[in-house]
Amino acid sequence: MDSFEIKSRAAAIAPVIRMAYSAEGKAYVSFAAECKCKEAVKDAEAAAEAVRNGAKCVCVEGVGTFTVTDAQGGGALSGKIAIVTGSAQGFGAGIAEFLASKGAYVAVVDMNADGARAEAEKIMSEHGTRAIAVSANVTDEDSVKAMIDETVCAFGGLDIFVNNAGIVRAGSLEEMTKTNFELVTSVDYTAFFICTKYATVPMKLQRSISPDYMADIIEINSKSGLEGSNKNFAYAGAKFGGIGLTQSFAMELAPYGIKCNAVCPGNFLDGPLWSDPEKGLFVQYLKAGKVPGAKTVADVRAAYEAKVPLGRGCRVEDVTRAIQYIIDQKYETGQALPVTGGQTMLN
Asked: Do 197 and 85 belong together in one domain?
C-alpha cells in the first residue's frame, strides 16, 4: 500500500481506538506507519478491545501503530479535535485560535500552505496546544478526503468541523462571467457538501463506539444567506444554498449525534475579504457601482457601517461567541444564527 492508502486505513481505525479509550473522546491518538509493539492485531475491533483491556500501544497488521494518551490541558474544549477551513487568515484564523484557546487540537486548513504553517505555529506558541497545518483545496474531493485522513491520523478523530473557506466575486448580471459564477458556487456551496461528506465519516465511527457522543458541523455562512445582495448574487445564491444544506444535513445527521448549524456574520469590514486593496469587496463594490454616489473605498465603507444599527462591522469575537454557543447547546440543530449587529433581523 502507498502512504495515502495507509493513512486512509489508519483514519478508519484511530477514531474507534479513541472512543474505546474514552467514551467522551478525551484522548489523543498518534499514528506511525510501522509496527512498534510486540504483537499485532488484525483489525479495528481487535484494537479497540485491546485498548479497553488497558493497552496504550496497539499495532494493527498492515497499517501501523496507534498510541493512546490522555488529552492534555484544560479548557471547555480540552481533548476536542477541530478542523477550520480557510484559516490561514481572517475569520478562519480567529476561529482556529479561539478553539485552541479553549483547549482543542486544531487543523489549520488553507490553500495557502505557508500561511497555514505560520498560523499553526502561532497557535502552538500562544496556546500550548497541538496544531497542524494542512494544505487542501476544498473544491476537490480527493484533497478533502486527504485533509480529513491527515487530521484524524494526527490527532485520533474529529469532533468539530468549521466550514469557513469562502470567496466573493461581485458584479452585475452584465458583468458577471460564468467562470466567476461557477468559482463562487464551487467554493461557497459545493465545497460544503464535499467537506461534510468526509468530515462526518470519523464522527459516525466515534458515535458507533460511544452512543452518547455528539459532534458539530458548523458552516460560516453570511447575512447574504438570509437576504438577497444587490450585484452580489453569486455569493448570496451560494449562501442561501448553504443554509438549505445545513437544514438538510441536520435532519440526516441527527441520528448520529452530529449537529449541523450555520453562523451568519455581518460584514467583516476589517478582514481581508473586504479590505484587500486589490481584490477586496470595498474595491469590487466601488468598481461595480454597488454604492450609489461612492467615489472612494472610504465612501463604500462608511455606507456599509451606516447600514448596521450597532454602527460597526462584525468582528472575530462576535463570531466565536456564536460558535461557542452552538457547541455548548446540545439541543439545537439546523439553525442559521445571525451575527449582524441588527442589520439583518429574522421574522
From this structure: yes
